[in-house]
Amino acid sequence: MRAKHSLRITLLTTAALTLPLAAFAQSFEDTPYQLDEIIVSGSLTPVPASKTGATVEKLDGEETGGATQSVSDVLATLPGVSMSRNGGPGTSTSLRIRGLSSDYIGVRINGIDVTDASSSKIGYDFGGLLSYGVTGIEVLKGSQSALYGSEAIAGVVSIDTLSGEPGLSATVEAGSYGTYSAGVSHKIESDTGSLAFTLSHFKTDGFSSQASNSEDDGFEETALTFGLEQDVSDNVTVGLTGLYRTSDLDYDTSTDTYATASREEKGLRGYVRINGDIVTHEFSASLFEADRTYIADSYDYTSYPYAFVEDAKSDFTSRRTELSYLGSADLSAITTLTFGADYVEEEYTNTSDTSAAAKGNDHNASVKAELLFEPTAGLNLSAALRYDDHSDFGDHISGRLAAAWEFAPEWTARAVLGTGFRAPSLYERYSPYGDPDLKEETSQSVELGLERRFGEQGFVKGTLFYTEIEDRIGFDYSSTACSSSFGCYNQVDGTTVSKGVELSAGYALSDTVSLYGNYTYTDAKTEGDRDVRIPRHDLVLGANAELSARFAGSLEVQHVADVIDSSVKLDDYTLVNASLSYDLTDKTQLYLRVENLTDEDYETISGYNTPGRSAYLGLKASF
Fold this sequence. Notes:
By secondary structure, the chain is an all-beta fold. The protein has one domain (38-381, 407-413, 449-466, 494-622): TonB-dependent receptor, beta-barrel domain (Maltoporin, Chain A). It is built from 3 helices and 36 strands. It has helices at 71-75, 145-148, 426-430, and strands spanning 38-39, 47-48, 56-60, 81-85, 93-97, 105-109, 112-113, 136-141, 155-160, 167-175, 179-189, 193-207, 217-231, 236-251, 259-275, 279-300, 307-332, 335-352, 358-376, 379-390, 394-408, 411-422, 441-454, 458-470, 473-476, 488-491, 496-508, 513-526, 529-530, 537-546, 551-561, 563-565, 568-570, 573-585, 588-595, 614-622. The strands form 6 sheets. It has a 22-stranded antiparallel barrel. Strands 3-8-9-6-7 form a 5-stranded mixed beta sheet, with no helix packed on it. A hairpin with a 3-residue loop joins strand 10 (167-175) and strand 11 (179-189). The longest helix has 5 residues, at 71-75. The chain is globular. The N and C termini lie far apart (49 Å).
């Protein structure tokens, strides 16, 4: 059975989609193509986009989406990125980078690692993360354990809410499915410091997650992020960032048509930056906690025969503490050395009315270094190495080599070779389905890219990518290594291979009209069997236009083809989205966003609904 779905689309209101090493500005008054854009996540230290071999998709300002849009919807229109969700806003959402799912993706919000250590596989559920207040996103692709350690086999998503323009702004929005949102952001800057915060609230009546019933599943969330930074002397800067998110969700289960889930996330990160004569030092400490509670009808599996339990409760709690040091020194005009050390502790607990309680903890210590070298003008090389000492898995060494070569005016070639690893999660080892004897997964990735620029007007580029994973961990219904009679987590036989090509382009036809597009082909298999929920073909085409001095619009089309979910082949689909904005004054804007304009009928997960045609009207004001 097919269901109505929402358009998985980035709503760009004034400029083309930002891509690695080039970005179309958010206003046609800005420069549409920036060669010196700074990339934060592609190396241990920020580098100009033109000098990194890594593939990084970068979104700024309005490109990060509208107030009620999910960040995953925004990211799903980038080359090499896809998304699947089992319902509407707030429901479980998995992001994939080059065919590899969320448990292979590191996620940072304002420098805080927000992956959930109590998940079955450590990862981040993008279901409740909305775009309001997000001022920048970087998606770093490929095996990046040399920089970020475990879980970075597919790449890293870095989200920023603190880099907006100074001032006070507010947004209200309302639309389909009884959806309402409101948010306020404020940033103050001085010569010696800054203070910024974003507070937002979102509520929707929703719709039924499962196609088999019609009961609406609502979602409500409140989110806060903040950051402050202060120079205490000419050479010393201190800072603090934080986040808080709480949400409540109605969802469908196989045993009833109504269940609830609540989530609370809290994070803090403090840092001190010291600018020495030779070495720049940064010391930081962070804490992240995530709590999830589910209430739904279930069965008591602690004894046989299994007894039915009404409104069974299950609690998951995770905690991560991290201490870090990073130093950087310019050894010469053409050589920079960055080095550091990390110590991370993770723990989780799970209590349930229907299964035995479980808990676990581990810790990991690491040292890392990266050398950036420019032997000749236009050729930039980097070599990174990391040593991890895990409390349960011992030693691991990861590496990455990258190169960017501007071999002719307006032409750049790139190459990256990296290795990665993923330590089994605490849940995979210590839950009732866990096996403490699991070993780590390992990966290798390689990519080759070529880019042609056309001055300030546009670019065309392509990237070939290949990643393979050994000792992948999956659920084995025949395994007896744990106490469960249903099966256990186990190493999957064979090698997982994900390979393909990314093509992207953008061009400004005039000062008021720009075009952009991208296409990704992905072939992901394990021992010849295709991996699920991964589009083999994903095409995005869009246009943005300044229709008058105050009136602007955008139109985007996305076509997704050849997706399987278990043994079911999902229907191909084409989605259309449009937006219009009108500047009532220099500081007030009215906008209309229409998702799934043609009311396309499609699925990302077999048997689950998402919205059909839906419209949202909003008002933005700055003060």
